[in-house]
């Protein structure tokens, strides 16, 4: 997840975002969210297929469109779960066909063609070029376990787990930078001192940039983009807090409760990156910071997400300062229709070269 090849994929998207989206809009109000989502989707697609899309090319983003539209159809699945016999009625059947068509569209137009192309060129015993190559090599060894359906579902999982989470975290980061210009000044000063302006930031710079790391950590704590994490299931009966939780129970953790607990983070409502720095200005980890959950079932994409957050954030701030449009201040409100991810309501920023 954190290899040099993947770093170059991320850096390519950062540069395209800066040159094709930000530069033409310098000094103007810009809603950067859409193009940021495309850039993050393109990073995932580059890891999956080795194909490079421009930051204005929406093909990789189309994979996520069915999941964004799922809220329109969720009632269909709820009702059919209660009364599955309805699925045989013509009106319900037509509705289901519409849902399936929406979900299959990115598979038919993007994912399956990429798999087909790889099948013609993959070296089953050589160095894999990307995720699809890895899956095809595994399929050659275990054809019953690694089927085409399994491959498609795994690719979709990568998009669902790694797309919204990273782009939304960056969206919150920009809000906090605009709300606290002194924090932004310190962060940009560190970038200038360590990286300079002649080259792009690299992951190798990260150990020497403690304030940047602390800012990202504080953003993750305050944003709580996945406040409940994902559901887990108990493999055996357990005792917890005086309660008996049976085997097979669905467990939902409340990560946000930990992040906003005064015992772990004094004045939790205050945005203060310094809480993750010691007296010498070095990064001070806190075990209570768990944006990727904990344990063996924690997020597999943590290294990828950390790399993206660092490179997109530093790449942007190396060239530009950010501020809200005159007269606007974000109230930290969220889009209410999102089921799992806490996404901020829409806003515009003004980026000025410095």
Automatic annotation (TrEMBL):
Q: Does the keyword Heme apply?
A: yes
- Coiled coil feature spans: none
Question: Needs which cofactor?
Answer: heme
Q: Name one GO biological process term.
A: organic acid metabolic process
GO molecular function terms attached to this record: heme binding; iron ion binding; oxidoreductase activity, acting on paired donors, with incorporation or reduction of molecular oxygen, reduced flavin or flavoprotein as one donor, and incorporation of one atom of oxygen; steroid hydroxylase activity
Its membrane topology is listed as:
Peripheral membrane protein
The UniProt keyword set, sorted, is:
Endoplasmic reticulum, Heme, Iron, Membrane, Metal-binding, Microsome, Monooxygenase, Oxidoreductase, Transmembrane, Transmembrane helix
Chief place of localization: endoplasmic reticulum
InterPro entries assigned: Cyt_P450, Cyt_P450_CS, Cyt_P450_E_grp-I, Cyt_P450_sf, Cytochrome_P450_fam2
Location relative to the cell: Endoplasmic reticulum membrane; Microsome membrane
GO cellular component labels? endoplasmic reticulum membrane
Q: Which PROSITE patterns match?
A: CYTOCHROME_P450
* Membrane spanning stretches: 73-93
Is Transmembrane one of the keywords UniProt gives this record? yes
One Pfam family this sequence matches: p450
Q: Return the SUPFAM superfamilies for the record.
A: Cytochrome P450
* Residues binding heme: 299
Family label: Belongs to the cytochrome P450 family.
- Any idea what job this protein has? May be involved in the metabolism of insect hormones and in the breakdown of synthetic insecticides.
* Name of the protein described by the UniProt record: Cytochrome P450 2C28
């Amino acid at each position: 997840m954190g290899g040099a090849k993947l770093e170059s994929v991320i850096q390519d998207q950062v540069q395209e975002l800066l040159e094709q989206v930000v530069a033409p809009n310098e000094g103007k109000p810009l809603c950067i969210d859409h193009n940021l989502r495309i850039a993050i989707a393109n990073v995932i697609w580059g890891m999956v297929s080795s194909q490079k899309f421009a930051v204005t090319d929406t093909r990789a983003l189309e994979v996520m469109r069915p999941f964004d539209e799922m809220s329109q159809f969720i009632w269909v699945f709820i009702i059919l779960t209660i009364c599955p016999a309805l699925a045989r009625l013509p009106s319900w059947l037509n509705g289901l066909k519409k849902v399936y068509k929406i979900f299959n569209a990115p598979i038919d137009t993007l994912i399956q063609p990429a798999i087909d192309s790889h099948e013609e060129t993959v070296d089953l015993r050589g160095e894999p070029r990307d995720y699809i190559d890895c899956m095809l090599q595994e399929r050659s060894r275990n054809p019953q376990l690694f089927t085409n359906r399994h491959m498609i579902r795994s690719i979709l999982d990568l998009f669902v787990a790694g797309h919204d989470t990273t782009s939304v975290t960056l969206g919150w980061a920009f809000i906090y930078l605009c709300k606290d210009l002194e924090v932004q000044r310190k962060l940009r000063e560190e970038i200038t001192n360590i990286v300079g302006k002649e080259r792009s930031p690299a992951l190798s710079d990260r150990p020497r940039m403690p304030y940047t790391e602390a800012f990202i950590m504080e953003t993750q704590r305050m944003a709580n983009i996945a406040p409940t994490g994902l559901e887990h299931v108990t493999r055996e009966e357990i005792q917890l807090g005086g309660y008996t939780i049976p085997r097979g129970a669905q467990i939902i953790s409340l990560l946000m409760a930990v992040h906003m607990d005064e015992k772990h983070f004094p004045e939790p409502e205050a945005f203060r990156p310094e809480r993750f720095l010691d007296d010498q200005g070095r990064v001070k980890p806190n075990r209570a910071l768990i944006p990727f959950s904990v344990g063996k079932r924690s997020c597999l994409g943590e290294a990828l997400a950390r790399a993206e957050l660092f490179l997109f954030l530093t790449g942007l701030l190396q060239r530009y300062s950010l501020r809200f449009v005159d007269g606007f201040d974000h109230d930290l409100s969220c889009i209410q229709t999102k089921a799992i991810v806490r996404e901020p309501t829409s806003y515009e920023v003004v980026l000025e070269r410095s």
